[in-house]
Every structure is written in C-alpha cells, then in structure tokens.
DNA sequence: TTCTTAAAAGTAATCGATTACATAATATTT
DNA sequence: AAATATTATGTAATCGATTACTTTTAAGAA
C-alpha cells in the first residue's frame, strides 16, 4: 500500500498538499487537486487509518458490547446499529464479553487506547461502576439494558409496563393461575418485568405464588425447558406462563410438547422480544415486540451526538404485544 | 491515559528504557525495571496500541468475515475462534458483510491499512478473486466456506459425503421419493451437497425429479417455508426432504405444521448444521453436525501459522449424522 | 507597472510507540 | 590498576498521517 509520501512525490507536491486534497480540497487549486487525485489513483493509495488515528485521535470505529452473539435477540439490534453506523461513516466492532470481566477489561482498554471512538453497551453483566466511570471520559451509550444513573444515556423500552400488559392479556383470557419464568433478578430488566407481572396480578387480586415463579441462571433454551419442567411438576400448576424472554419461552414450549400438552388450551405461553424464531415454532409464540432495529439505530445517533459533545437525552421507546397462537 | 514519555519522566529514565522494560525486560537491570514498573503502576499506563501498531505493523486483531450475524450457524464457530484467539493474545473483529460488496471493500481495506493482522473468511458471498489476490500479501484463511484455490487455505467438512450419507439414511428408511431444499448453487457447499444428493439417489436407482428440488434465494426461515410449500403443492410429492441447512429445514417444518402433516410419518425431514435451535423445534430435527467449535479454533491456529510465515495445509474435518425425530 | 492582499503550497512539529546506533557504566581479564 | 569486554542506558530516526506556521505565488488596487 502506497504512503502519502509516495503520492506526494509522484504528484510532485508536498505531503501537506496531498493531505489537503483528501481532507480540505477547497484549500487547493483545481489543477493541483487533479494532479494529486491522479497520483492517488495511479498508486492505489488509501490513507492509513493508523497514521491518521494517531494524529487525530479518531478511528471511526465503535465498540458494541454484548454478552453473547448466539442470543438472537441481539441480531436485529446489531442490524440497526450497523446500518446507521456505516451510513455515518463508522464501522463497528462486535465485542462478545461472554460475561467475562477479563474480556470486558480488554475492550475497555481499547477505548482508552483510542482504538475506538465510542461504546454501545448491550451487556447486562457489564461492570456498572466501571462503565459509569468510563463514561465521564469517553462517549458511551447503553442500548436495551441500562444502569440507572443519570450520567449514562440509554435507549430502552418500558419493561415493567410491557410485562404488565402481557400478564393482563393472560388475565383477560380468563387465566387465574399464571406462572413466571424469569431471568436472574440482578438484571434490571428481569426485576422490572417481575414488577409488571406482580402489578397485574395484584390489580386483579390473583395469587402470587412463589412456586409458580422460576428464575433461571442462564438465558438459553435449556433453562427455559428446565423451568417449565419444574412448573409442570407441581400438584397445583399454572394454566398460563409468562416468560421474560423468547429464548426461555421457546425452551418452555419444547417441554410442553414433550409432555403432550396442548397449547394454548392446556397451557398458554407469553414470550418477550419477538425474536425471529418465535414465529417459526409451533404454535407461533405470542410475545412482546421491541423496536429492536430502531433501538440500534437510535443508539448510534445518540453516540454520535455524544462524540460531537452534545447533551443527549435518554429515550424510552414503544413496544407492542404480538398476539399469536400460544395464548 | 499516560504516555510512555510521562512514564519515562516519572521513573527518571529514557523512553527507550521504558519500552525495553515492557518488551525485552532481560535487557534492563533489575533495579531499573523496578523503578519503571512502579511508574507504570502509579500512572496507570497502558501502551497505546496505535503508536505501537504504527511502528511494528501489528495490531493483534483478526477480522472475521461473515455474511450475517443472525444465522445461528456462525455462533458456535465464532465461539471457537474467539476462545482460541484470546488464548493466543489476539482479539477478533466481527465483520458483517450482509453480502454487500461495498462493505467487503471496507473490511479488506482494514487489513491493507494494517488495522488487522489477518482475516478469517466465512462468507460464501465474498469476492473470490479479490480474496485470492489479497491472500498473496496478507494472512487469510477460510472457514467452512471456501474457494477451490491452492493458494488459499481452508478448514471445512466434506459436504458432498455428508449429503450423500444423509440422503442414504432416508433411502434406508424406505423412502423412494426424496426432495431437496437447496440454497443457490453458486455457493460451493450448495453444489457439493447437491452432488451428494444426486449420488445417493443414482446409487439406488431412484428418480431425480426437478420438481422435487427447490433452490432458495435466501438463507432464512421464510425461504425454507416457501420451499416446502412448493414441494407440498405437487400432485406427486416426495415423502422425505433433505434441506441443506437447518435454517431452511426449520422453516420447512413450520409449513408441515401448518398443513397438519405428521412428521416423520407423512413427511420426513433431514437438516444440516445442527444449530442449537434444531433440537428445540418439535419434533427435534435430524441433521448433520459439523464440528463448528473446532472449525473455529483450528482456523485461528492456521491463521497464526500463516502470520508466522509457515506453510499451512488445508483441513477437512469429520462430520456426523444426528438422528433425531424427523426421520 | 508597482504595491498590497489573499490564496496556495511548503516546512517541520507532532501523535506514541520501537529500535539501530552511540555512549556510559559496570564486569572481567591480564 | 589498566586494558578490554560486556551490559545497561540514552539519543534520535522512524512508522504515516495532520496542521500551525512560513513562504511563495497569483490576483486586485492604485
């Protein structure tokens, strides 16, 4: 790859002029511009991101932190992020933390090292203190998952209300015994969705039974299946279950199949996220749709504002229920 | 973030000495080492990747090219890549090309710009000529998908044999009318799996009927569903279908549900890839398992060898059939 | 045509590291 | 103790760009 010096020599001008042709063409004469452009084309020159970054301290790269790439929930958000980022002349670096603090440190160092211009964090397992501390120096926004802290901006949905509406929908269908498959409540969205569940049941004077609530340790199909197994094994079992994530719901659905239970007649099921799978399983899963693509693209816009040094307001986007055939 | 100059000043030595303490500690006295280490700790110094890269031309970063992050097939491979890479002191940059040549160019430029030390390509839509040309100058390996070219190394499986075995399994179960849901045959694996299908049918003197073969344009659930719809709409329809990808198979399965066909009694289904989801659908999908994790970790080892300038041999790994309940 | 002013191009410092080469400080040999 | 060999440290060039500052060139005014 040719360097700026070679281009300068070839075009018979100084390196400064070449740099100007690239960055501020107005400052150079048409004739000179032409010569330089020609040299650039001839030598197949591309400015070195490294040299430029070292000098300007910007890489036009974002870090996107997520716990695991295999969770399909993130796929769509990433799509929104990617498209918006590219449109704005940025690229993204997908960073899978696997909920491993050591890996998190590596990625945080990348921004300290100016290898990236900003961070979009979607990782619920992220070290909140460190993230907050980092956010005082570097542009950071949170997407979907967030820490309640007013220095950190976020874009998310109202999980509590969504859960409330989902459970209310089950109640309206006549269910009186409603179970919950939740994720570890140390995650904000899990505790919020729990509160929505609780609120709906209380409002209709229905029983909140600890035996009908199962908190999973992991967010995968098996955990959902395991949860449903436990719920089914009870003498007095629920007639409907709200799962705080489609991944869990899909796993639960498998357990229902294994037990030959008719869905929704013998057991109704409500998921959350509207991942692609949710419409492919049988019967198609009733769920809560988050505006995933928008969340992604908005978080990029917020990050860009931050980079420009503007104040940015956090956003709570609208969700909606998608009633399919499991309820 | 402190710079090497500040550390040098604080420790009362030259920048060269600081650099030596970090890179070749044997060359500096214990006492000096101690002073410098202390300064590094005090100032919370981390070497700038940018400065270092500019000088040494290595970033310890890999590019991983894939068409789409939402295809669960890649999740496990990436896991293998990520773990092996981190173990070797490298990080990976996940690059979603969305099969868009313009985006591909961006990522290729990153390696020309020395922003990354190597590329692992898993993208079947990649521009093969450009990849081959690039591979003469930069370390590149292909994972799973590959171009037949002896300058380009790859790690993959024997798709033709796997397809042959899968179809043979269906034949052994007594099926005489076997359909195929394939992906666009311009992709090598699609044409190889087709050949395996063809070979098995020919061997047992079974009919290869064009009406029973559907090539999808995209690799997603809907395409699989659409394919099965077409196959079902025929007067004389197959009793078993081999889909070259689980994603297609799962979509096809949905169409079977919609049509209330019993699986496998009225229609058997054989997938390919063993994605996590294949064991969650109902009934669990019979499929071909690729050693995805290994493919990922091996491709990193191959890439590292290439970076060290060693000759590397391409590898064809073993697959195996996972017989579940759709056959 | 000469003087003033604005625009264009060049020179060199800079970003943060590494490293060849030069020099200073020890260690070893005689 | 002096001469020599070895090791430790420092100096300065370098990677590839950007940009403040200076100098040159061209345009406009008198």
UniProtKB/TrEMBL annotation, chains A, B:
<dbReference type="InterPro" id="IPR028082">
    <property type="entry name" value="Peripla_BP_I"/>
</dbReference>
<keyword id="KW-0805">Transcription regulation</keyword>
<keyword id="KW-0804">Transcription</keyword>
<dbReference type="Pfam" id="PF00532">
    <property type="entry name" value="Peripla_BP_1"/>
</dbReference>
<feature type="domain" description="HTH lacI-type">
    <location>
        <begin position="2"/>
        <end position="56"/>
    </location>
</feature>
<dbReference type="Pfam" id="PF00356">
    <property type="entry name" value="LacI"/>
</dbReference>
<dbReference type="InterPro" id="IPR001761">
    <property type="entry name" value="Peripla_BP/Lac1_sug-bd_dom"/>
</dbReference>
<dbReference type="InterPro" id="IPR000843">
    <property type="entry name" value="HTH_LacI"/>
</dbReference>
<dbReference type="GO" id="GO:0003700">
    <property type="term" value="F:DNA-binding transcription factor activity"/>
</dbReference>
<protein>
    <submittedName>
        <fullName>LacI family transcriptional regulator</fullName>
    </submittedName>
</protein>
<keyword id="KW-0238">DNA-binding</keyword>
<dbReference type="GO" id="GO:0000976">
    <property type="term" value="F:transcription cis-regulatory region binding"/>
</dbReference>
<dbReference type="InterPro" id="IPR010982">
    <property type="entry name" value="Lambda_DNA-bd_dom_sf"/>
</dbReference>
């Amino acid at each position: 790859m040719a360097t700026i010096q070679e281009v300068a020599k070839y075009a018979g001008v100084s390196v400064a002029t070449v740099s100007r042709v690239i960055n501020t063409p107005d400052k150079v004469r048409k004739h000179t511009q032409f010569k330089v452009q020609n040299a650039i084309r001839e030598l197949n020159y591309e400015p070195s991101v490294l040299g430029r970054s070292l000098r300007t301290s910007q890489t036009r790269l974002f870090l996107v932190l997520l716990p695991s790439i295999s969770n399909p929930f993130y796929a769509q958000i990433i799509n929104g992020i990617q498209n918006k980022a590219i449109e704005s002349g940025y690229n993204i670096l997908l960073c899978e933390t696997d909920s491993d603090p050591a890996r998190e440190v590596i990625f945080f160092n990348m921004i300290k090292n100016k290898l990236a211009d900003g961070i979009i964090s979607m990782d619920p397992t992220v070290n909140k203190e460190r993230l907050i501390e980092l956010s005082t120096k570097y542009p950071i926004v949170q997407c979907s998952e967030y820490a309640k802290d007013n220095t950190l901006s976020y874009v998310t949905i109202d999980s509590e209300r969504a859960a409330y509406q989902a459970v209310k929908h089950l109640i309206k269908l006549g269910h009186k015994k409603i179970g919950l498959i939740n994720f570890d409540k140390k995650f904000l969205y899990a505790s919020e969705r729990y509160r929505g569940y609780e609120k709906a049941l209380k409002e209709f004077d229905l029983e909140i039974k600890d035996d009908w609530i199962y908190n999973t340790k992991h967010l995968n199909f098996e955990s959902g299946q395991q949860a449903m197994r436990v719920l089914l094994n009870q003498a007095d079992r629920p007639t409907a279950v709200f799962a705080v994530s489609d991944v869990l719901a899909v796993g639960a659905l498998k357990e229902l199949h294994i037990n030959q239970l008719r869905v929704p007649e013998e057991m109704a099921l409500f998921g959350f996220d509207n991942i692609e799978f949710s419409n492919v399983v049988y019967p198609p899963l009733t769920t809560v749709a988050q505006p995933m693509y928008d969340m992604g693209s908005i978080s990029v816009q917020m990050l860009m504002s931050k980079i420009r040094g503007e104040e940015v307001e956090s956003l709570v986007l609208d969700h909606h229920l998608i009633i399919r055939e499991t309820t």
